[in-house]
Amino acid sequence: MTESFISTSEFEVASNAVNNILGQPVEEIEITDILPPLNDITDSNKVFKGKLSVLFVDMRKSTDLTDELKSKKMVKVYRSFIRVVIQAIRYSGGYTRQFAGDGIMGVFQDSNKDDQIISSSYKATKAARYIHTLIDYCLNPALKKSMDICIGCGIGICTGTIMITKVGMRGKESDETAENETGIVWVGSTTNYANRYCSLAHLCEIFIDENTYSEIEYSEVWIKTSRTKGSKVFEGYTVSEYYLSLPEEITTEAVKADKENYSETSFIQEIFAETQEKALLLVDEISKKSAELSVALEKIKQRENQVIARDNDLWMENIRLQQWQDKLNSKQADVDCKEQENKEQAYSIYKSIFSKTYCKNTLINEYGKDYWLGLIKKMYELGQEIGKSEIQVKIDLDCYLIGIYRCFAMYEEAYELLCVQAENSTWLSTYVLEDVVKQSGHWAKLKGILEKRVYKGKDYRECLDKLKSMGY
To answer: Do 136 and 237 fall into the same domain?
Structure first.
């Protein structure tokens, strides 16, 4: 088999296309009150730009449904779901523009009716309520009856400026039968945020951004919230089971998917769930050892009563009692050793919380100053129980504590910890040093420690030079 290659003509076709795109200026065309039809968007550097509201809806746990249902049944579920979603978007004044598996994107724009502006945000939130209403009052009752299943979805909405352009490649020059492979992309952060809000929305919930919230009525039903995705926090407003009204003649009752099967756990919740589980194991182990100790004590008491009753064998019984006492002491020593191990393990678990939130100021601020000060106090208490002094605990947590204190503008405490780190650690951040010294106004003690370390041959010359360059 000969090696595959790109011919000169094919390479020149690609090169000419790229140069043509890069060489043409981008022409912006403001979107009017009518969204441009897809066929009117040309394959060029012309882009339509304007303010839109973008809605993303996603069927939850569809992969699990696909595993449970046969393919032909799943086709019916998908087609029914997409059908009601498109109707909700269309009848609310929007346009369905993208399909991605079980995810659908709808777009909405402001319009003028009878000299009254109808905002894109109002249309998008109405469509979201329309979707949830049709799913729980129309689709789910039918699915429950025919297949004994229910589905649910989450919806995200974001409002902002978007640019619309066509991308792709028209048919092959040498082959008139080749189809055009082009598509429409929606450029801008608004689309990305709407998609992210959709993934953060819980079952039967709508998650919107601040721009959308500012344009809608009945805002009192929405709850301000923040949710974490990876290391980033997203703020917005949510509402759950916010249905549209139905006529009195429609008596169908809502059939909802089971929310317990759709729960998700955030990063920080996983940390504390793991901590709680380990703590319960520690308690269980201590309780077990205490029960064994109680059993041993009961046996000794029985043996003592037998010794009193047998006056003629008192000496022998005393020896046996001493043997039991020795065993008890040995068991007590084991229990003490295990308790020490448990305390050391608890210390390590709490320490991991500090390490996992290091440099994550958003998470630190989310739990608040009182929480972290309480946790620091807990570390001092655990350290004392395992034989660590307060200064040794500070050495273990130096860079973590400095970060927390800086986060809450506690620069006096941050400076104290910076001195501890300089005296006992092998690493020091010049950036943190500069910030803490400037904010606290203290420098003398730190300078003395650095000079002493440099004199002894330690690698702190850069930090000392930084302090001197600051005029100290």
So the answer is: yes
